[in-house]
Amino acid sequence: MAGNPFPLSKAELLKAYRTMRTIREFEERLHVDFGRGDIPGFVHLYAGEEAAAAGIMIHLGDGDRIASTHRGHGHCIAKGVDVGEMMLEIYGKKGGSCNGKGGSMHIADLSKGMMGANGILGAGAPLVCGAALAAKYRKKGEVAISFVGDGASNQGTFLESLNLAAVWNLPAIFVVENNGYAESTSRDYGVAVDSYVDRAAGFGLPGITVDGTDFFAVYEAAGEIIRRAREGGGPSLLECKMVRFHGHFEGDAQTYRGPGELDDIRANHDCLKKFAAQVTAAGVISADELAPIDREALAVVEDAVARAKAAPLPTVADLTTDVYVSY
Amino acid sequence: MAGNPFPLSKAELLKAYRTMRTIREFEERLHVDFGRGDIPGFVHLYAGEEAAAAGIMIHLGDGDRIASTHRGHGHCIAKGVDVGEMMLEIYGKKGGSCNGKGGSMHIADLSKGMMGANGILGAGAPLVCGAALAAKYRKKGEVAISFVGDGASNQGTFLESLNLAAVWNLPAIFVVENNGYAESTSRDYGVAVDSYVDRAAGFGLPGITVDGTDFFAVYEAAGEIIRRAREGGGPSLLECKMVRFHGHFEGDAQTYRGPGELDDIRANHDCLKKFAAQVTAAGVISADELAPIDREALAVVEDAVARAKAAPLPTVADLTTDVYVSY
Amino acid sequence: MARKISMKQAINEALDQEMARDPSVICMGEDIVGGAGGEGERDAWGGVLGVTKGLYAKHGDRLMDTPLSESAYIGAAIGAAACGMRPVAELMFIDFMGVCFDQIFNQAAKFKYMFGGKAETPVVIRAMVGAGFRAAAQHSQMLTPLFTHIPGIKVVCPSTPYDTKGLLIQAIRDNDPVIFCEHKNLYGFEGEVPEASYAIPFGEANVVRDGRDATVVAYGLMVHRALEAAASLAKEGIEIEIVDLRTLSPIDMDTVLDSVTKTGRLVCVDEANPRCSIAADVSAQVAMRAFGALKAGIEMVTPPHVPVPFSPPLEDLYIPSAAQVAAAVRKTLKGGRH
Amino acid sequence: MARKISMKQAINEALDQEMARDPSVICMGEDIVGGAGGEGERDAWGGVLGVTKGLYAKHGDRLMDTPLSESAYIGAAIGAAACGMRPVAELMFIDFMGVCFDQIFNQAAKFKYMFGGKAETPVVIRAMVGAGFRAAAQHSQMLTPLFTHIPGIKVVCPSTPYDTKGLLIQAIRDNDPVIFCEHKNLYGFEGEVPEASYAIPFGEANVVRDGRDATVVAYGLMVHRALEAAASLAKEGIEIEIVDLRTLSPIDMDTVLDSVTKTGRLVCVDEANPRCSIAADVSAQVAMRAFGALKAGIEMVTPPHVPVPFSPPLEDLYIPSAAQVAAAVRKTLKGGRH
Ligand SMILES: Cc1ncc(C[n+]2csc(CCOP(=O)(O)OP(=O)(O)O)c2C)c(N)n1
Ligand SMILES: Cc1ncc(C[n+]2csc(CCOP(=O)(O)OP(=O)(O)O)c2C)c(N)n1
Ligand SMILES: [Mg+2]
Ligand SMILES: [Mg+2]
């Protein structure tokens, strides 16, 4: 394909864009619906961070496992979890990914290799060591990836996991999604080193930092370390520097942000805008080819919301099932 | 004092030697008495590691706090805990440091700044952050020191504490006592990096590795980082490479050691022999001046054992006291 | 009538007054101030639900935001307590205890005993408990039984703003480690609270309603469910006595036993899961110590033995209701010795 | 007569047979092989008390030594279980649960429910429980109530080598997370154990002694104390029925209730601290569900509500004795309805 300077085919590029756009529409819609009082509970939006999920997950198949965070919608969508079931779940409805029992913070789909969003910071890292260990026994070249925020990177569970993965030489990858904040606290208050690469080095892991709002930067770095892990080369850490468009959770007034910060990140650090600019500037994809994807993503989300609103709620019979496999 | 090439006065040198020799006699005696069946429970001996405790604690006063490990006798003695009370405690007797309720793994004396041996690996590190925080509020230039083994350095509690101390710029020092083993497992299996200095760097702490069997190397490195901490310069990590003369605990057959290893460490890495050789070679202290200290240390320990054996056991009235300050 | 404030304000006021009174009181926790290291507002959050908001302006750096490392900072609070401070550490949600439990149950709780009585650890750990927030299985648990099982810690769970202020002040002044459980669904609940400082002693249950027919023991949010049940039962001519435990460890069994001796019937209400719960604990102690007074089988009202579900109708079914309490009372009234 | 082996050997044999039978069974833990990375013997330890010794020679790298990071490796066992393996992770002493409890109670225990039934987590966590080793407050606890309180995990605590083998095999084959509690003071206890593989279903208590006068419920080491008490009581003409719970979650209340219905008297013996204990749990359930059958107040025999002391005479006083069990039985026999 002469004239395509990117390491992906046009079809792959369009797929990546669709993933990111679907996440964006999903999250922006939740923002609106939460504001309206339609959605119960705590909701943490991934908007602004889409390039990381998309740039990493594009390398994975269903046999590769990921463990996500409280801010998990983007990871789910990029890993192939059904958007309709996710929306049902967030609305607490029957037929949701977790049949309404989990909600936003616990969406999982093991058949897609998605081991769950998680309400406990850092908790996914040990689980991913286990998934990677299972992969090692299965010998099919599968990998497992743990996502963690900049703040959660200070959890002992996460830190222990870096060492365990190194000691056992696991096909495990630790992605630090550094969006600059842990709740209202600046990343620079909570972590005393500038770079997560240094932290990884302290455990014997190679690490790399990329601009997490640049899909291609993420794509390349992730591709390299995933390939290494598949080939038995062991674990790595990938730091994605990124921005979060919304508050920590819905309802957060965000007064801790600097003046003009939100305008700036929306204007200058929007990964979707960046991607569109890159592919159109290179002449590989035209704006006209992106527009229908935008419309389709919106339609998918609107359809999901409509179905979620219409769906039945779980009933008393659901309350006591699913605690054990056998009683 | 012309002709003394050491950074300590002759009196200080003799004191350091006495500390180390007392620890050695204490531990070797426990080894014998445990073998005889006189001592209940788990006993982890510090013999071979004395230079670290002595070289660090000589810089501290009662207002400086330490938190120790399961292998805590040496730290206690060097921090000034009464040897007689320690022995009573290890024998489970009334009048022991903990009135018989704690035993070898829990000897504490807060009046001496000794916050306790600890049966939980890594647990002392958060406590020391708190002691250092208290020191910071008190503004008297006190420091707090956490000891941790090479194996326990993989505990999340310890790792989190490195970050917390850095973030809060605490007068806290983390001493990794690297004796090459965690139980029967080699240090190189459990930790994937060669140096703890790298691990410290990953959290933003300066670190330094010394030969922990060389009293003077420990003394100097510890002095430097303790001074820095007292002056508000923040936390550091000190790795002491050392050897353990006995098994992990008493009763360990040590088949995991390489051939000739034990002979070698006793012959060539005995910190007491090294110290004696250094001070006598320099002509600062003669062998004749050390001998009485040896005899006195032995006498102190023998006296402690005799008193411990003769002392009364706790009684039923002691069982239910000391749970709460107020009921 | 005295001033009415919310439970949230009562907590804020207790902290404020104790910090003003005693310079050794310090607070720490994740975003308890908020905005640390950033370019925007400091005190941007005052805790995830704004409970500590405003304290930073008055007490400055004696409130410390922490990295997201519960073991390290809860442990630091404990260590500082053992060195003469009176730290109040916030664990945010009690559900997070699993990442730092060792510091609480093997360190703080055991120092005094393990060290032969020679240590004091006056630390308070504040944490939100309870369901009803649509926050699902990892942010909605009670977990009070886990702490109550451990000797050496004290466990408090107030039901009103008045008790909250007085018990929190006592917790701070108390020389033992205290787990202070704040029901998130009571934060907005208002009640009369004196402005002056006061402490409510631990181990004194509160008879919040007198009645002759049956004793209902509860704590936290469940006290309110019991009161609702009482209102509807009264219409049927049934008068229940409600004992609000207030502190679970120490527990005031005397008040419970006195009440059961009077009424002869016992219903224990607990928002914790049933197995090895506070409800079971109280029931067992009564079955042992006041068996002769019992006229009928004891009833326990708890959630089912399942995690907390997310979906609102399921969560509402999960939490014991006034109707369930009333039904249990009616059942024990029908029961009797054969 | 069948072959006699120790409880330690029974565990080793169960692991060996299951590893041979099912390639997805793997074992991990600190020094469960021993000698890793060193120049001496591999399989140098086989666990801190030699329980897994010899398995490495047969199953090689399916037994993995771990760094001293319980959160990471217990969590890894759980994660691997969610991905199709059947890991058996050793926590060494149950007292260490505080550094890794989140992975057990918020992850493993809740996956199935939180994920709407779509997950299975067939992990076994083996841990030593109990006092008597002169190992003091942080190495001697029971802590069974903490796990039993949590829905979603199963809790097992056998009293004999026979039960140990059968229950461990069941634990490994079971598709739910299991905490398998091994009483360190029973490791040397010998009993008849068939060489062939067998599984004992969960939730089936064992009536280890028939009796008409009172029901004694116990588990683990306490079963032996109850048996001792039975022998001395028999001399007085008192015949107690002893129910060995074997699994605490699920719990076989039917067997307990049947026995109490027959005897009319209940003594619950528990080596855990009393508050919110297994003893309290069983007592409460009986007081609720079989009140009419009770002829006298329930008795509980537990340690005092204190940490485990080090000094041998204190520790011996701490652990419930056969004499205390016998005294409790006599007391409930004297009691009666007024
Ligand atoms: C163990 C634990 N501690 C605290 C919390 C509360 N909490 C939820 S999200 C969050 C901030 C996380 O920040 P970061 O890891 O940077 O992720 P981000 O929200 O920025 O994506 C906190 C403190 C939790 N869920 N779990
Ligand atoms: C949390 C926890 N895990 C495991 C243990 C069991 N244990 C006691 S000492 C020890 C080895 C410690 O090795 P290291 O830290 O190197 O110290 P050393 O014994 O060599 O001084 C282990 C695994 C424990 N006490 N606490
Ligand atoms: Mg963040
Ligand atoms: Mg070591």
Structure explained in plain terms:
The complex is a heterotetramer, with two copies of chain A (327 residues) and two copies of chain C (338 residues). With 327 residues, chain A is an alpha/beta fold. Chain A contains 13 helices and seven strands. In chain A, the strands form two sheets. A five-stranded parallel beta sheet of chain A has the order 1-2-3-7-6, with helices on both faces. In chain A, strands 4-5 form a two-stranded antiparallel sheet. In chain A, helix 9 links the parallel strand 6 and strand 7 (236-241). In chain A, 62% of the residues are buried. Chain C has 338 residues and is of the alpha/beta class. In chain C, strands 3-2-4-5-7-6-12 form a seven-stranded mixed beta sheet, with helices on both faces. A five-stranded mixed beta sheet of chain C has the order 9-11-10-13-14, sandwiched between helices. Chain C has a two-stranded antiparallel ribbon with strand order 1-8. Classes of the chains: A alpha/beta (327), C alpha/beta (338). Bound molecules: thiamine diphosphate (TPP) (2 copies) and magnesium ion (2 copies).
